[in-house]
Every structure is written in structure tokens, then in C-alpha cells.
Design goal:
The protein has about 180 residues and is an alpha+beta fold. Helix content is about 45%, strand content about 20%. A four-stranded antiparallel beta sheet has the order 2-1-3-4. Strand 1 and strand 2 form a beta hairpin. Helix 1 crosses helix 2 and helix 2 packs across helix 3. The longest helix is centred in the N-terminal third of the chain and has 21 residues. The protein starts with a helix and ends with a strand.
């Protein structure tokens, strides 16, 4: 089948959906459902939001609408945080492994790492993710020929200052929040 045939089939499907009453109704229902998901996701915390969150949460993850706007208002986040793993090797050396956050154009396709690190650092619901991430770091170190025995996760944070402040943030502080033996 040629590319032209595929494009023609897709156009035919679109035309059929848009030209039939049932097709237009299906498109309208889809739009209403998506708008409802966005509205529920961005509601302030309430009984209604908490009741609908399990269903809506799965849907937002699947379609990529899982973003919070609290960073902008009403109370923007006051803490800048970074995730580091400290890997203790069998020979006693320690390697610091920052979360895989890149700069430049690659930020656009590697942003998921920044979001994942942010998720690990925020909230008790994420405790089950700490050990798998630490084991993943250990596996990465083994792939580089190292022999990790312990991986510790650290939260590196500083309080963000208002725009009028002399410095953009306060002093950085490091806090270990998880450690696991990973053998060798």
C-alpha cells in the first residue's frame, strides 16, 4: 500500500466521521470528556476531585495531560530541588550521580527525567519508587565497570527568593532520604 493510499484512507475516515451525525456526536463527546478531564485535574483539592482522581489520573497519564499548575498560582513552590544518588563502591570510593537532567535542546526530549526526579522527591506516595530507582543507578554503575554496594538518595534543595531579592535562592542544603544495599 502506498503513502498516497494511506493518506487517502485517513482522509476518507475523517470525512466520514465529520459528515455523519454519529461521527460528529462521537467527536463532540470526545471533546467534552477531554475538557472534563482537564477541568477535574486542575480543580482545587476537594471531595469531588478526590473521588474522581483515580479514574481521571489514569486517563491524564495515558493522554499526557498530567501536569499541575500550582507552580504558577496561588502559592508557587518555594523550593528548588535536585536529586542525587551517592554510590558507595566495594573499594570504599563514593560516586555522586545526579539525576539524568540534560541542558540545551535535549531538555525537550529528556524532560521526563526531571519530572521523575521531582516525583521521587515529593510526597510519601512515592516511597515505593525509591528502591527501583536506586537499583537502576546501581545497574548503570555496574555497566561502567564499578562494584556498587550501597546507593543513597539525596535531596539537594534551596529556598527560592522573591524576584526583588539580592540572590535567586538561599543556601543549598543536602539531606539523605533513602539508602539501600545493592550488593555486588
Amino acid at each position: 500500500m502506498s503513502t498516497q493510499d494511506t493518506e487517502a484512507d485517513e482522509q476518507d475516515l475523517q470525512e466520514r466521521l465529520e459528515s455523519s451525525t454519529a461521527g460528529r456526536a462521537a467527536i463532540s463527546v470526545l471533546i467534552v470528556v477531554l475538557l472534563g478531564i482537564v477541568a477535574i485535574t486542575n480543580m482545587p483539592d476537594s471531595l469531588t476531585k478526590n473521588a474522581l482522581a483515580p479514574v481521571v489520573g489514569r486517563a491524564t497519564n495515558v493522554i499526557g495531560l498530567d501536569q499541575g499548575w500550582a507552580v504558577y498560582a496561588p502559592a508557587p513552590r518555594r523550593l528548588s530541588t535536585y536529586l542525587e544518588a551517592h554510590v558507595l563502591d566495594r573499594d570504599g570510593t563514593t560516586t555522586v550521580v545526579p539525576s539524568p537532567i540534560t541542558e540545551g535542546l535535549s531538555e525537550y526530549w529528556d524532560y521526563r527525567w526531571q519530572r521523575y526526579a521531582d516525583t521521587l522527591l515529593n510526597g510519601p506516595d512515592n516511597v515505593p519508587r525509591w528502591a527501583p530507582y536506586a537499583r537502576w543507578v546501581a545497574d548503570q554503575q555496574r555497566a561502567q565497570g564499578r562494584h556498587p554496594v550501597v546507593v543513597s538518595l539525596w535531596n539537594i534543595s534551596a529556598e527560592s527568593q522573591p524576584p526583588s531579592a539580592a540572590a535567586p535562592r538561599g543556601p543549598w542544603a543536602a539531606r539523605q532520604f533513602f539508602s539501600i544495599g545493592v550488593g555486588s
